[in-house]
């Protein structure tokens, strides 16, 4: 069992607070993605779990054991970083074997584990090659194989695919997901790429300004953002937001259109671009830009003076300057508190 529990972990660098009392539980064998913009504290949190950074406050538990006072090598974890430290002067075999040699694992066991993980990562034919001769994608596989060979309870990955080109990323992403599910490790994976996060994660923890804003299954994070920030960060293009005023009759006025909404004093209206469709009644949108995307067309419009995007079926031609009426799918409308920025249930 390698459940990871983070309790009230804070990190201050001099006067700057990189993490504000983070609480997070990652279940045994779960694939957790830490997602957020540059500087939000993802790497700092990962380094604290790894033992490469000391928390200013709080506790880290792995598999029921408190580890925040233990050195990295006693935590049962393996790591894969963005600038994967593969040694060019060593063969692929020796690179994968590196941690096992450090841990004085017997030769027969080293051979068994290196062969097995090389097969898992489809690099068994490269074992005798020097790592300096490999492509970026092959080196990335070696780095992952080296981590897997340790048969760790926990694997920590910090943007491991960010040095690969787009096609290779896609391929490695699918492969990683399969391999890690098979290896039964608990994984924490840091990325700022929301598509990567959605595709890999059992759960996503969205971070902003040193805090975890939401931690949930990808579909839940996408469909039901707990805060305005999550709706605006996840989704490409992101969620649309419009101001709303109570209409005095129990409903809300949004860009001149009446909607049912929550029974509160103030609220902001939100809808995802794909949850809109042309209709007789709805939001009046002046089309500014039309971008055909193949199966869909992305429309950037102006709704009540606000920028607003819709993803429409490609068979409904429209052009800049045209005024269209867009109806939001009722059960996809979300509401946020304009002050706290949190979702209103
Ligand atoms: P990125 O995606 O750019 O790596 P991140 O979300 O991983 O960003 P962190 O590397 O965790 O962000 O950094 C969080 C904040 O803490 C940043 O503002 C960073 O400048 C600051 N920080 C990180 N390490 C140190 C340090 N050793 N000394 C001072 N400030 C630091």
UniProtKB/TrEMBL annotation:
Domain ABC transporter, first and last residues per copy? 4-234
User: Which Gene3D superfamilies does the UniProt entry name for this protein?
Assistant: 2.40.50.100, Nucleic acid-binding proteins, P-loop containing nucleotide triphosphate hydrolases
Q: What is this protein called?
A: Multiple sugar transport system ATP-binding protein
GO BP terms: carbohydrate transport
Q: Which InterPro entries has this protein been placed in?
A: AAA+_ATPase, ABC_transporter-like_ATP-bd, ABC_transporter-like_CS, ABC_transpr_MalK-like, ABC_transpr_MalK/UgpC-like, Mo/tungstate-bd_C_term_dom, NA-bd_OB-fold, P-loop_NTPase
Q: Which Pfam families match?
A: ABC_tran, TOBE_2
Q: Cellular component GO terms, alphabetically?
A: ATP-binding cassette (ABC) transporter complex, substrate-binding subunit-containing
Q: Give the similarity note.
A: Belongs to the ABC transporter superfamily.
Q: Which organism is it from?
A: Roseicitreum antarcticum
Q: Does the keyword Metal-binding apply?
A: no
**Which keywords does UniProt give here?**
ATP-binding, Nucleotide-binding, Sugar transport, Transport
A GO term, aspect molecular function: ABC-type transporter activity
Taxonomic superkingdom: Bacteria
């Amino acid at each position: 069992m390698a459940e990871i529990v983070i309790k009230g972990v804070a990190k201050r660098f001099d006067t700057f607070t990189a993490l504000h009392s983070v609480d997070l539980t990652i279940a045994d064998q779960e694939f957790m993605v830490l997602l957020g913009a540059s500087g939000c504290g993802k790497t700092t949190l990962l380094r604290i779990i790894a033992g490469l950074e000391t928390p200013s406050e709080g506790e880290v538990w792995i598999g029921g054991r408190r580890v925040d006072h233990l050195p990295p090598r006693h935590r049962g974890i393996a790591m894969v970083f963005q600038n994967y430290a593969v040694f060019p002067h060593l063969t692929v075999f020796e690179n994968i074997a590196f941690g096992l040699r450090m841990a004085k694992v017997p030769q027969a066991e080293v051979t068994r584990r290196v062969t097995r993980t090389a097969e898992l990562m489809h690099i068994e034919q490269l074992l005798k090659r020097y790592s300096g001769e490999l492509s970026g994608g092959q080196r990335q596989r070696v780095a992952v194989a080296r981590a897997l060979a340790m048969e760790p309870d926990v694997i920590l990955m910090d943007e491991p695919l960010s040095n690969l080109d787009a096609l290779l990323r896609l391929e490695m992403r699918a492969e990683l997901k399969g391999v890690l599910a098979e290896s039964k490790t608990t994984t924490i994976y840091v990325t700022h790429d929301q598509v990567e996060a959605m595709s890999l994660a059992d759960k996503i923890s969205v971070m902003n300004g040193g805090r975890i804003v939401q931690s949930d299954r990808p579909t839940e994070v996408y469909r039901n953002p707990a805060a305005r920030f999550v709706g605006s960060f996840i989704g490409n293009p992101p969620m649309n937001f419009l101001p709303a005023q109570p209409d005095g009759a129990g409903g809300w006025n949004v860009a001149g259109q009446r909607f049912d909404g929550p029974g509160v004093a103030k609220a902001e209206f939100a809808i995802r671009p794909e949850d809109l469709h042309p209709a007789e009644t709805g939001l009046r949108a002046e089309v500014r830009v039309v971008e055909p995307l193949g199966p869909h067309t992305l429309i950037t419009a102006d709704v009540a003076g606000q920028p607003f995007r819709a993803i429409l079926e490609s068979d409904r031609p429209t052009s800049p300057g045209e005024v269209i009426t867009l109806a939001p799918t009722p059960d996809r409308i979300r509401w946020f508190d304009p002050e706290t920025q949190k979702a209103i249930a």
